[in-house]
Amino acid sequence: MNKGKYLFTSESVTEGHPDKVCDQCSDGVLDAIYEKDPQARVACECLTKTGVVVVAGEITTNAYVDIPKTIRGVLKDIGYTKSEYGIEHETCAVFVHLEEQSPDISQGVTEGSGMHKEQGAGDQGMMFGYSSNETPELMPLPIVLAHKICQKLAEVRKSGELKWVRPDGKSQVTVEYNEGKPVRAHTIVVSTQHDDIPYEEIKKGIVEKVIRPVAERWMDDKTIVYVNPTGKFVRGGPYADAGVTGRKIIVDTYGGHGSHGGGAFSGKDPSKVDRSAAYASRYIAKNIVAAGLADKCEVQLAYAIGVAEPVSVYVNCFDTNRIPEEKIAELVRKYFPLKPADIISKLNLRRPIYRKTAAYGHFGRNDPDFTWEKTDKADVLKQDAGSLKEPDKTGDEVPLDA
After folding, report:
1. pTM for the structure as a whole
2. Backbone angles phi, psi at 281, to 5 degrees
């Protein structure tokens, strides 16, 4: 665990950011298919540039979905209703290039097929979950504040409270820590696409209506605030930047705290462990912290394609654990689902719940559909660990609840 004072920064982006547009389009396609066929195999990627969305990937399903209509609906909901914003939902071009999942992959994922009879992982790879007790969400404070600022930015745009705000935007929050605990907001950055109006009006509106309602309790007279630091952000959206699915994986997770295996989430059905095992890892880490076994926890799960059992389970508590990490790892194997089919069943992942995960983070959200955020294993973990001892600094054994 870090000692002394240090700064840590995380960023978020609004639902109108081009990369997030693509994440939501990809998960919009997944949800549309899952509404009709929850056994479908979906790997859907999107790209956007001025006036265009390209949809590509591998989808195996018996359902029919009007994909261009789905994409246009996502764009409209986000607020891309004028071509001057960078794309317009009714008149944009939507190109679709989809094929079926490779049969070589399918046989490894389908129960009873391939070399192993259980449902195996949809790919090799390692997935991480993280949790910290520094916020009620059991998430790191910088990413929590960054997400909430972006959510507030969208709220004042859609409600009309700040009529000049356009869909694209970003936030960045730097938090000062002392001995591993957050103490204040050091720097807050907000960049929002806007109508062509005076800069001072923009800055005043963002500070008063967006930043302070979210972060004021962490701000002091030394907090640095930057609003649209270039001075102008009229041209935005896909006009200013191409967007691609899966290019905001740190925004999607923990803002740079913990580790990341590299796999994106959006557009992938839960047979892909990139998504389901990342959710399971968060579920495990959050319950470990909620049980009081550690103040911070990172869990890694790793898989071989077509194989159900993980090849490794790793727990790192950053020296904040109250019982040995190897004991925590034993509890993980004892109480949590680790095989892909078990994860999907326990977390009830074959539902059309994914589009709303695709903006403002997949973790730390108070939504009943986010089943990986439950702390329903905390009590049993605490009870099972209660008889264990740990050495204190004098070498004497101290009960966990001492």
Report:
1. 0.91
2. -65, -40
